[in-house]
TrEMBL record:
Domain TOG: 1-164
Source superkingdom: Eukaryota
Compositional bias ranges of the Basic and acidic residues kind: 204-231
Protein name: TOG domain-containing protein
GO terms classed as biological process: establishment or maintenance of microtubule cytoskeleton polarity; microtubule polymerization; spindle organization
Chain intervals for the UniProt region annotation (Disordered): 204-262
């Protein structure tokens, strides 16, 4: 289901989905490691859709492709290399960043798994078409003598059949006709080799997986730590209860209509404040949000939103949900801040808070859909990548809620 949703997101979002490459592409490629062929096939179809919408170059950003090729899972390596053999012949000449994939390719050529080796050898000529023989031959200098000789032989064979891809703007001149006929012959040969590699990749899943080591000792050693953790939780709980009386009583509307969204957008665009982009929320990010949201909520609501006790977060979410209809205009003016606060809850370990936050978002998106409200790029970028990241959550009820919200988002989020 998650694979199909990622495919639908690319289909609906088009080229605008390129901004989410770091969140989505590694996960899609990760499905190639699955032992079930039909799931690997679904992952390949999803990657095809993303590739058709955003192109090949985003795979080179942040070393997404080279990092994936370094994975040791034979299913992933064989499937990814077969996919590359399929798409590389149709790409324009790739930039120098593609050289980062040479070392992982050499590693795949020497992989212990036969299907990986076959897929890697079949793809060498396609890598060479973009990188050139000299660059790949030069990279063998870092190999040990035995590996260097065997890989150099493979490069020499690939050199004989490789049809270099000209850089953009260069003309073929009088050799154009010959190049076209050679290219057609090469394309036919490439298709045959890719088919052979795909057949070999299908055999990978039949090989027995390496036996897992017993984890008995590890589990035993973790028991004292868990017991100590329970004691600590009780201590924190009692401390939180003692502070509960200090919370300021409700002193007016929980959501205040405070104009300022456009100014926040300008400041973030001009890098006057920290950009809302992280793999895990940092203290300075949380403090910035705490300061930005303060004029937009009552003091008691502010205390609940940023309290260390999760029970106050549950209270805050209840109030936010009830405020959707009561303080709609005020909520829309602070929508970017509220969405950012919910993304922080995605990193909490408390499932009750997470599910309640997702329920709030579901009600919020329903209201936005009824009003034909479209999230601005500023609002969507602060929330949607983190929502999509929860599609793979291990808890079934969380995944179900996230999938429902993703479907709702088709009415409120424009990916163009």
């Amino acid at each position: 289901m998650a694979i199909n949703i990622s495919k639908q997101l690319a289909e609906a979002g088009g080229s605008g989905m390129a901004r989410h490459k770091n969140t989505m592409l590694p996960g899609i490629i990760g499905t190639f490691s699955d032992a079930k062929p039909h799931l690997r096939k679904a992952g390949e179809e999803a990657l095809d859709m993303w590739h058709s919408k955003i192109g090949f170059l985003p795979l080179l950003d942040n070393e997404i492709l080279s990092t994936a090729m370094k994975e040791t899972n034979p299913n992933l390596r064989a499937t990814l290399l077969t996919w590359l053999s399929k798409v590389l012949p149709n790409e324009k000449k790739l930039p120098g960043d593609f050289k980062d994939c040479i070392a992982p390719l050499f590693s795949c050529i020497e992989d212990r798994n036969g299907a990986v080796r076959d897929a890697a050898k079949a793809s060498v000529q396609h890598f060479m078409a973009h990188l050139g023989y000299e660059a790949m031959s030069k990279a063998t200098a870092k190999l040990d003598p035995t590996s260097k000789k065997s890989i150099q032989d493979i490069l020499e064979k690939a050199r004989e059949v490789c049809v270099p891809i000209a850089a953009p703007g260069k003309k073929g001149g009088a050799k154009g006709g010959a190049s076209k006929s050679a290219g057609a012959a090469q394309a036919a040969k490439s298709a045959a080799m890719a088919a052979q590699a795909a057949a070999a990749a299908a055999e990978v899943s039949k090989e027995p997986a390496a036996p897992k080591k017993a984890a008995g000792k590890k589990e035993e050693s973790s028991k004292p730590a868990k017991a100590e953790g329970r004691k600590t939780s009780k201590a924190v709980g009692s401390s939180s209860r003692s502070k509960k009386n200090a919370v300021v009583e409700d002193d007016g509307p929980p959501i205040i209509h405070k104009v300022g969204k456009n100014q926040r957008m300008k400041e973030e665009k001009a890098l006057k404040v920290l950009k809302w982009n992280f793999s895990a929320p940092r203290d300075e990010i949380v403090e910035q949000l705490k300061e930005q949201i303060q004029p937009c909520v009552s003091p008691s609501m502010h205390t609940k939103l940023f309290h260390k006790d999760f029970k106050f977060h549950l209270e805050a979410i209840d109030i936010l949900t009830k405020s959707i209809e009561t303080y709609t205009d005020a909520m829309l003016e602070s929508l970017d801040l509220l969405l950012k606060w919910v993304t922080l809850r995605f990193f909490d370990t408390n499932t009750s808070v997470l599910l309640k936050a997702l329920d709030f978002i579901s009600h919020l998106f329903s209201m936005l859909g009824d009003r034909d409200y479209q999230l601005s790029p500023f609002e969507a970028q602060a929330f949607m990548p983190y929502l999509v990241g929860k599609i793979g959550d291990p808890k079934d009820n969380v995944r179900k809620s996230v999938r429902g919200i993703v479907k709702q988002s088709t009415k409120t989020v424009s990916c163009q």
